[in-house]
Design goal:
Radius of gyration: 28 Å
Structural class: alpha/beta
Number of strands: 18
Helix content: 25-40%
Largest sheet: 7 strands, mixed
Shape: globular
């Protein structure tokens, strides 16, 4: 009979020690919440500690909070270990490129620093407990061991790549590809794209949806340093037929070296992140052999992962040894081997299969291709008032089918990249909130179409989403509100305080007070391009628009509108005599005076701060110089933020 050890309560339980899960657990622990981080495997860090050493983000400026913290620690490690001007510091690219062992060390350092965070590897969820459509507890067991442990929490966060906890709790989800017309996505469904610079779409691209999932693989850490490499060995289940098409590719000069088969890119200390090559028809991806992975048992998943592992081991062996290839090709390929000081306990091979796409929950908002493209009539991607993070990677997808007879030298079905179309975008809170269910957030297997997921599915993005999920969980517990009802403005305030980006601008310092205020109003629709022009004098209509956004959106404060005139006199001052028919009309006056001057601004501040915050009145300005966009946003945001803090404090007193 199964022995169950009863409940040990936590505030928050995070399932999956992926980078997103680590970020979520760290954020909750730092908020004073007792947190349990469970990981089914023996390793933390997901793909970032399993070979993905060149993180998929174009620029650190488009990320914030926990990912920047991680990157800073990477840079510090290489700087202190090798010197500021070392090749290692240069090769780490500001902390965005790293060896797997360094990433693992830093993640353990970050988790071990949190006293309220408990990490348990090789623990998986056996079952869940629900009450009134709310996840309340889980049963956990160590891999292949008894007893089963009963663990409860106020909030659960599923950070697995697969979305396993959400599925176990009964959250509906999608997998596979939507059709082109399901969400009005131009490149959805069945597609053949020439991956050269033209990105031409080829015949056969019908846009029909299906259940195919983009290919998985492993990210290899290779080296050509002869004294630091481990030899490639032939797997027991070697299948030469998997790679034979490369012989013809080499003969036709479509493939000229191992670097045309694998995308081998450097990380520090002479090592690489070796990934699938976009232009090769037979690379490290294994399309069409992962269809049973998501719904498969543990044994099925192990079998699929093992097949991917031996396939890739066999590919390396083929490139180095098959006599149908030219000797010069084999000799060149033979220079490479596994980095001998990485993944020592798994025979130099990364332990984590690259699950590029798992389940995608049905959430309160569905992120699509169109959310990462220019919004119609605007100079930026669509605006989300509940934005909690930014994303900055081209929408892409790997192949869903192996090489086919027709067009075999041009394109694999499902392989696409939309770098020329994708813009830096906002990610709304609703993508991680399951519909019609409480007690659970899902910041990795988010609510998105296949196309939308094709850009969110990057580790820096997941880290920021995980961090936001942790802050949201803390607010929910503190406010005693369901996760879907927490005040979005409070969540954004806190994320901005923690240097998270919620809106990207090209021309601001996002970590300054002014930059954070502009980001807040950027999420409310105050700007329609990627330029804030914060030093420019703000126009009256722009200031009015910002106030309107602050007032009208959910959670917005009832702020007073701007004064209709800048000719107000202090109370007690006689206005008369004045005759309206002898003065310039307001319409003409504002056309001639389009900018917000300090007199109007100060009169508005006098009312706004008194009504909302009870602050001392600011001194009256008589000079009429203009107010800048940055100054106005910063002051309005400060008023709103102070009012929210006051309301939160009063609510907390009421609960006590």
């Amino acid at each position: 009979m199964e022995k169950i050890i009863m409940s040990q309560d936590y505030d928050i339980i995070v399932y999956g020690a992926t980078p997103g899960g680590i970020a979520a657990a760290i954020s909750t622990a730092r908020k004073g919440r007792r947190t349990l981080l469970l990981e089914p495997s023996a390793y933390i860090g997901g793909m970032m500690t399993s070979g993905l050493g060149r993180t998929d983000i174009d620029d650190l400026k488009a990320s914030g909070a926990i990912y920047r913290e991680f990157a800073d620690k990477v840079l510090k490690h290489y700087s202190e270990s090798y010197g500021l001007h070392s090749s290692q510091v240069k090769d780490c690219n500001k902390g965005m490129y790293f060896e797997p062992s360094v990433a693992r060390m830093i993640f353990w350092e970050m988790t071990n620093a949190e006293q309220l965070l408990e990490v348990k590897c090789e623990h998986e969820i056996a079952s869940v407990a629900m009450e009134d459509n709310r996840l309340t507890a889980i049963r956990v067991k160590a891999i292949n061991q008894l007893p089963v442990l009963h663990r409860s929490a106020s909030v659960f966060i599923d950070c697995t790549y697969e979305g396993d906890l959400a599925a176990m709790a009964g959250v509906p989800y999608w997998s596979g590809r939507e059709s082109r017309d399901a969400w009005n996505e131009e490149y959805a469904g069945k597609i053949y794209m020439n991956f050269d610079e033209t990105k031409g779409v080829l015949p056969g691209s019908t846009g029909v949806g299906d259940h195919r999932i983009q290919a998985y693989n492993y990210r290899l850490c290779l080296t050509d340093m002869q004294d630091r490499k481990a030899a490639v060995t032939k797997p027991n289940t070697y299948r030469r037929e998997d790679y034979i098409s490369l012989v013809e590719d080499v003969a036709a000069s479509r493939v000229n070296s191992i670097r045309d088969v694998l995308n081998i890119l450097p990380v520090p200390n002479g090592k690489t992140d070796a990934n699938n090559h976009h232009y090769c028809m037979c690379s490290s991806d294994l399309p069409d052999e992962n269809g049973d992975y998501l719904e498969g048992s543990g044994e099925v998943r192990k079998s699929i992962a093992a097949r991917h592992r031996t396939y890739l081991q066999g590919l390396l062996w083929f490139l180095q040894n098959d006599e149908a290839l030219p000797a010069s090709f084999r000799i060149d390929a033979g220079r490479w081997g596994y980095a001998a000081d990485e993944f020592v306990d798994t025979d130099y091979f990364p332990p984590q299969i690259y699950v590029r796409e798992g389940r995608r929950i049905h959430g309160e908002y569905v992120f699509t291709e169109n959310d990462a493209r220019l919004a119609p009539g605007m100079g930026r991607s669509p605006i989300h008032y509940d934005s909690i993070a930014t994303g900055a990677y081209a929408i892409d997808s790997h192949a869903v089918r192996k090489r086919e007879p027709e067009g075999k030298d041009i394109a694999l079905e499902g392989f696409l990249g939309l770098g020329w179309l994708t813009e830096i975008y906002q990610i709304p809170y609703g993508v991680m909130v399951p519909r019609q269910m409480e007690g659970l957030l899902v910041p990795v297997a988010v609510s998105a179409t296949h196309m939308g997921f094709g850009t969110i599915r990057m580790e820096p993005c997941w880290m920021q989403l995980g961090y936001a999920a942790g802050i949201a969980a803390d607010i929910s517990i503190e406010s005693k509100l369901p996760l879907r009802e927490i005040p979005i403005d409070l969540l954004q305030d806190e994320l901005l305080d923690h240097n998270q980006l919620i809106t990207f601008f090209e021309d601001i310092d996002p970590l300054s007070d002014e930059g954070k205020a502009i980001q807040y109003f950027g999420a409310k629709g105050g700007f329609t391009t990627y330029k804030a022009e914060s030093d420019r004098p703000i126009r009256i209509h722009e200031a009015s628009g910002i106030l309107a956004k602050a007032r009208s959106l959910p959670g917005g404060q009832r702020m007073p509108v701007l004064p209709a005139t800048d000719r107000l006199l202090p109370t007690g001052t006689d206005m008369g005599p004045r005759f309206h028919n002898s003065e310039i009309s307001p319409e003409v006056y504002w056309k001639e005076q389009p900018y917000l001057n300090r007199v109007t601004y100060t009169n508005w501040l006098r009312v706004a701060t008194t009504q909302l915050c009870g602050e001392a009145l600011p001194d009256r300005f008589e000079e009429r110089e203009d107010v800048s966009i940055g100054e106005f946003c910063n002051r309005v945001y400060a008023i709103l933020k102070n009012q929210r803090k006051s309301s939160q404090a009063n609510a907390a007193k009421g609960r006590r």
